[in-house]
Design a protein that fits this description.
Length: 188
């Protein structure tokens, strides 16, 4: 979107941007769109279909992080692997013991993906990857896993009033760390 559309009537212009993109397309065949600087927009025949598509888009983002981390560090990194598997196993164990019902398989798949992302982010530490990038990626991945863990605990184990604040703060810190890890610092 051009700057003038962002600075004036952002919501209206975002909607019009999406409509322009989907002209000539069946929106139910492509039930999601990414808009720069915004969360994905998803839809479906029902709210449940739209929510399901949002989960798929989120999963694809985790896989993109995983691929990015694998592109500059391919070492096995056993200690980070054990740490990520341990964190994932403990958190999944807590959630599974609370009864996930039909959400069991999607939660296990999602937990596996974020555990793999954490492993690859931690694997970059102590390699030839620039230290700042490796630290930001590791901190971001840890914050992201923490955020998603709080979502699961709040939703399936024991709801608590501060959860939305803890979730959004750790989520944005995680996203910031992960995104900032991709940029190099230019020294003058």
């Amino acid at each position: 979107m051009p700057p003038e559309e962002i600075q004036s009537e952002y919501e209206l212009n975002t909607g019009q941007s999406i409509i322009r993109r989907f002209q000539g397309l069946n929106p139910l065949e492509t039930p999601a769109v990414l808009v720069a600087g915004h969360a994905p927009f998803t839809w479906g025949r029902t709210p449940a279909e739209a929510a399901h598509m949002a989960v798929i888009v989120e999963e694809l983002a985790h896989l993109a992080y995983l691929k990015a981390y694998l592109s500059d560090c391919k070492r096995l990194a056993l200690l980070p692997l054990v740490l990520a598997l341990g964190v994932g196993a403990v958190l999944l164990g807590i959630l599974i013991s609370s009864g996930l019902g039909p959400l069991l398989v999607p939660v296990v798949v999602y937990g596996t993906a974020i555990s793999a992302m954490l492993w690859r982010a931690l694997a970059r530490l102590g390699t030839d990857v620039p230290k700042r990038s490796a630290l930001l990626a590791a901190a971001g991945a840890l914050a992201f896993v923490f955020s998603d863990s709080v979502i699961g605990i709040d939703r399936f184990v024991s709801p608590f009033h501060a959860a939305p604040y803890v979730i959004i703060l750790s989520y944005w810190l995680g996203q910031w760390g992960i995104a900032a890890s991709a940029f190099s610092v230019k020294h003058r």
